[in-house]
Amino acid sequence: MAGSIAAARPLRAGFSLAARASSKENNLTDAVIKPLTEVELDERIREIAGKNKMLRSFIGMGYWNAVVPKVILRNITENPAWYTSYTPYQPEISQGRLESLLNYQTMVTDLTALDVANASLLDEATAAGEAMIMCLATMPAHSTKRTFLVDSGVFPQTIDVLHTRSIGFGVKVVVADVQEAINDPAIAGDLIGVLVQYPKQDGSIVYYSDLSNKVHELGAHMVCATDLLALTLIKAPGEWGADIALGSSARFGVPAGYGGPHAAFFSVKDALKRKMPGRLVGVSKDTMGNPALRLALQTREQHIKREKATSNICTSQVLLANMAAMYAVYHGPSGLKAIAQRVQQLTQALAAAISAKGYKITNDTYFDTLTVEVPSAADVLSKALEKGINIRRVDDTHVSITLDESVRLHDITALASSFEGATIPSSITTGESIPSALLRTSPYLSHPTFNAYHSETAMLRYIYYLQAKDLSLVHAMIPLGSCTMKLNPTSTMAPLTWPELGSLHPFVPEDQAKGYHEMIKELEDDLCAITGFKACSIQPNSGASGEYAGLMVIREYLKSQGQGHRDICLIPVSAHGTNPASAMMAGMKVLSVKVLANGNLDLADLRAKADKYKDNLAAFMITYPSTYGVFEDTVTEACKIIHEAGAQVYLDGANLNAQVGITNPATCGGDVCHLNLHKTFAIPHGGGGPGVGPICVAEHLAPFLPGHSQVKTGGSQAMSAVSAAPFGSASILSISWAYIKMLGGSGLKEATSMALLNANYIAKRLEPFYHVKFVNGAGRVAHEVLIELAEFDKKAGLKVSDFAKRLQDYGFHPPTCSWPISTCMLIEPTESEDLQELDKFCDAMIQIRKEVNDIIAGKQPKDNNLLKNAPHPISVISLSEEEWNRPYSRTTAAYPLPYLKIRKFWPTVTRIDDAYGDLNLMCTCPSVEEMEAKF
């Protein structure tokens, strides 16, 4: 950082003046947020973590204790080469984690017996919400059906989120015994889908084949929320007719973490794949004809479809999906089945002990969960607590116990003794806890990948084999505009895997999570100080989830004011794709606002539309600085126009890294904003998740912050939940809490200044070679630089993607491509990069421009040149003299600048054929026969 300051000192005075002229000052000082040293931070976080009580929890409800294999914990979870990478939109330098995600998809499709799975969603409850809307979206165009039937055995937090998600789409959620309700003519005639839990929340296992047939006869979809470990023993949903399966993959080696993050899985029948939300990894081929992986069917996603999308999902849970996939690879099918059988046997032993004392187990069938009828649930809970154990209170006369792979004999002995001193018998004669008709007989995880790496040595080598294929922040700057790929400090990451933070169940009594509540309160207070707002909710699990939550808060507020008819949302054409998708999900009609030729918001168009729709205008979404990388000096005026029309302003916090300590969303005129903790506040991107998207709101919106069905949270008039867990992805909040505490007020402001300074340094260095698309009146950019490449298409036939692929040869991840303008690159260096790295990147871009000049001058053909043929992996450089048919040398291709001979990251495949991958969709690990047939 010091190097950047010294290098750009001539810019500093003019830059600071420009910043003040284009934004509102915010005096974020050390008195507001006191900085801590690294040692002080460690002491403080240990003090806080020590306030959490380390009891054993067998509460269940979709959360389990996990045994994380140490080879995965150390080499995936705690490894920056895995957690600092970005979403694999540049597949040539992402083949490792793409393969791991393909393993994940294969694991899910095999276990659920469905055709296609995505690469994870945010959590089980929101996955159920996605399934509900998918059911609606796949109804015939003329259909007016709107009823989604949910079995009463579904987890209550899932039902809570379904109620929230249903509002914007006008779906009627009916919670009932589905076996009976399906016969109600009013329900049957209006049905879009049915959701069941398998096994149910009480532990019972029901065969839904007849129900599934009935649902299909009614023209609706059968949706199953299920448990991957249970599916190693019980018949898969696809085998009895489910169209969609979903759930949490957390019990595959991911700790409870007081609620998350956990990767939700989602699989569908082949006919539904083009309506499936989330990212999808597919097999394609590169220009050499070799198999290669990429993200498939991207036209389904919000960044393409915008307000026409049925989902706003962007960030998912890739790091956690990789952990779950590696868990399955490590244990293999026989290992997973052995774990499941052990859990079932211990559950049977516990059931036998409790039944012997005269207690009634209300579920005759079960895998890992028992529901017990008792005289007093409070008494049983109290006795279990005395033994250091949490179980679930269902109601006054019922308790529930869920076991998992972490359970030992002493655990079930203690559990049994809570029921009038029941003891585990030395020998057990058990009944059929899983009906024979529901026992799984079909194979799963038969691909060689799941049967080859069962020793630590083999697993370690496989992990590092994949890791070597991926570029991450351990290799180089990742200058992705609007993504803020900054340093994820090791000191903030270290506490993440401590048991005091990782082992808590999200529904433990509040007095057992005092440390978490203290940390969350401090983080919320700090975020309010940073944004200028009065209240905060950290429940949303991503930026897009935060957008949706914020808009729903606005909706609830307007309703409380008798203005519930307001349903129009104005959004600039330059906005992130999640903005219009989120507004659509919140039940709003999206109208676009024009942008001027200089990149600024067209105030005249905004004013005209605000006036025209003032009686129905609900909200205006704006990003500041704009997605074009400039501070617009009209932002406060724009907000004033909206407020005069009786509407609310949603300020997208995606670019908050350019605001902290210099201005804030409240000063700009916003009423609500979301923050991307995985951008501005140092949570790692994890290759595409996890993320956290908290919302901060003005005082009048605070009462409507989201609540939760199981834990008191939110405002006094709280809307229903937007995530499965009351505090979202709670375990990773410690990262942002620590980041803020170490920097303090002045450090946060200095970080912002450095981010702005670094971007302006790059702009000035590249300005003689590339057209910087937008600057403010002082000739400055904000925290990112938009460069225009259209002229090179006209002069040399070069697209943005050609520049991106060539940049891979220089050892860099390309900037954001073709967004927010299709012919541009958006460059964001963040404050983390020093002068040497900035100059290396600029040197690479300048050298590429010289290569372009050679093409323009005719020294290289337009169809056979360094850019069109990029990237150049070792497989290309090692071609024989007879095979090398390129008008440049191997040295020029591989080592265009001297630093590359000292340290070079090699792409592992040549450019990948996107069209082939979508036309020949394959989203599971291909067999040897499939490889031979296709490649």
From TrEMBL:
It catalyses: N(6)-[(R)-lipoyl]-L-lysyl-[glycine-cleavage complex H protein] + glycine + H(+) = N(6)-[(R)-S(8)-aminomethyldihydrolipoyl]-L-lysyl-[glycine-cleavage complex H protein] + CO2. Its cofactor is pyridoxal 5'-phosphate. The modification N6-(pyridoxal phosphate)lysine is found at K679. The keyword Nucleotide-binding does not apply. One of its GO terms (cellular component) is glycine cleavage complex. Residues 596-623 form a coiled coil. One of its GO terms (molecular function) is glycine dehydrogenase (decarboxylating) activity. The keyword Plastid does not apply. Residues 30-418 form the Glycine cleavage system P-protein N-terminal domain. It is an enzyme of class 1 (oxidoreductase). Residues 751-872 form the Glycine dehydrogenase C-terminal domain. Its EC number is 1.4.4.2. It comes from the Eukaryota. Gene3D superfamilies: Aspartate Aminotransferase, domain 1, Type I PLP-dependent aspartate aminotransferase-like (Major domain). GO terms for biological process: glycine decarboxylation via glycine cleavage system. Transmembrane segments: none annotated. Belongs to the GcvP family. PANTHER family: GLYCINE DEHYDROGENASE (DECARBOXYLATING), MITOCHONDRIAL (PTHR11773:SF1), GLYCINE DEHYDROGENASE, DECARBOXYLATING (PTHR11773). The glycine cleavage system catalyzes the degradation of glycine. The glycine cleavage system is composed of four proteins: P, T, L and H. NCBIfam families: gcvP. This is Glycine cleavage system P protein.
